[in-house]
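Many introductory courses stop at the sequence. We go one step further.
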Amino acid sequence: MVLSTKSTKSTKSTKSTKSTKSTKSDSDFAEVYANVLHSPRLSEALVSSREAVIGSDLELPPRSISQEQGAPVDIFQWSTTVRHSICIGELMSDIRFSDTAADEKGESAPFCAIINAGGKPCSLQRPAEDRLKEDLKELLSMAAQRREREAEIDIQITDILPFFATVIDINDERHPVTIRLAELVLDVVFLCHQQMKHRLNVMRPSLRNPRVQAMLPVPGHGSCPSGHATEAHALAKVLGSLLEAALDKGESNYLDAVTEQFDFIAKRIAENRIVAGLHYKVDNDRGATLGKFLAAYIVERCKSGEPILGQIWEAALREWGWVPAPDAEDPATSDSDTSTPPAA
């Protein structure tokens, strides 16, 4: 079973559900605090237990903990949500946004939103009116597919990871760090595409044609680039890069098949948003460009040896235990043929 990529939402829903149980007494009320289920009754029990067991000698020397100056801090000593916040800060620290409406000569030019990540720019041009009109016709014709894609579209409102997870069997018990890495990618990408949407300021299809009648509530932000397209293509590229780093070099055919499926899935997730009546095709094109750009930036930061992001990347790699160790003998160059296949 794969964890939802929207873990914060599940926490909120748990709180709201419990708060509706008004028939419970205050002593029975439990709430999540510091990621631990906590209740006032538990606090009372802990206080009385401490008073009974600590004794009267309060002059015990405190524990001495030596910390090497400048040594890398183990990111995994912190809770999941704290690690997540720290990594978001690390990745966003080297990302800047801008826009332009003129070329270097000061002449009128197509409006562009620009993101600079790690010193490298990516520019997205605001779609021309003629292109939006053509894409609107395609959107209206694709609306006929809404019933057959309804389940996908509904699930993908908040969770796209399971569609990638099924390709390589990402499991929340065996690959928790891989899932956290995926969540990190999605959250960073979300922050970035919202900035680009704001700058490009493209109105939704339903505001251009009353026959669109989207099958979902229309989100309260701009249309271009498509957030789902951006997130799906970024996730596809990061997971593909992770698997490439983990696999033995003799597994190139398998890797090609996996990355091909990831690409197909990313495109279908994006296309589903057109079917739903929420996006133009050009939104998906711009989203794919932005998603791949951000994926390259994230992977480069993770593989650069940085103490924080590097720990997350290396821990995710170790979760794929069926992958040969880096120093393992290459079967292709071995003279002997004594290897045995792994047990099923």
